[in-house]
Amino acid sequence: MYKVKVFVTLKESVIDPEGAAATKELKKSDFPEVENVRVGKYIELTIDKTENVEKAVHDMCQNLLVNTEVEDYRFEIEEAAAK
């Protein structure tokens, strides 16, 4: 069994309105040291598969979890204890 952490971020070339709004509000809230905020998402999967986990996760990201036109992703795979 594997625990997979998927980190999704907007590509650098894509404007991040949520990040821009967060940056503005942080600066207004006495955090002037904040230069830029980029907002992404975190997805956690538990997979009961023993063969080619990396390819399976890559395929899941490419086909369903990530909009690869505007988002980049990376993932970490950890072995998890079976329940």
UniProtKB/TrEMBL annotation:
Reactions accelerated catalytically: N(2)-formyl-N(1)-(5-phospho-beta-D-ribosyl)glycinamide + L-glutamine + ATP + H2O = 2-formamido-N(1)-(5-O-phospho-beta-D-ribosyl)acetamidine + L-glutamate + ADP + phosphate + H(+)
Top-level taxonomic group: Bacteria
EC supergroup of this enzyme: ligase
Function in brief: Part of the phosphoribosylformylglycinamidine synthase complex involved in the purines biosynthetic pathway. Catalyzes the ATP-dependent conversion of formylglycinamide ribonucleotide (FGAR) and glutamine to yield formylglycinamidine ribonucleotide (FGAM) and glutamate. The FGAM synthase complex is composed of three subunits. PurQ produces an ammonia molecule by converting glutamine to glutamate. PurL transfers the ammonia molecule to FGAR to form FGAM in an ATP-dependent manner.
GO molecular function: ATP binding; phosphoribosylformylglycinamidine synthase activity
Main location group: cytoplasm
Any one of the GO CC terms: cytoplasm
Name of this chain's protein: Phosphoribosylformylglycinamidine synthase subunit PurS
Subcellular location(s) of the protein: Cytoplasm
Family classification: Belongs to the PurS family.
InterPro entries, per database record: PurS, PurS-like_sf
Annotated pathway: Purine metabolism; IMP biosynthesis via de novo pathway; 5-amino-1-(5-phospho-D-ribosyl)imidazole from N(2)-formyl-N(1)-(5-phospho-D-ribosyl)glycinamide: step 1/2
EC number(s) on file: 6.3.5.3
Record bears the keyword Nucleotide-binding: yes
Entry-linked Pfam families: PurS
Quaternary state and interactors: Part of the FGAM synthase complex composed of 1 PurL, 1 PurQ and 2 PurS subunits.
Matches recorded under PANTHER family: PHOSPHORIBOSYLFORMYLGLYCINAMIDINE SYNTHASE SUBUNIT PURS
GO biological process, one term: 'de novo' IMP biosynthetic process
Keywords: ATP-binding, Cytoplasm, Ligase, Nucleotide-binding, Purine biosynthesis
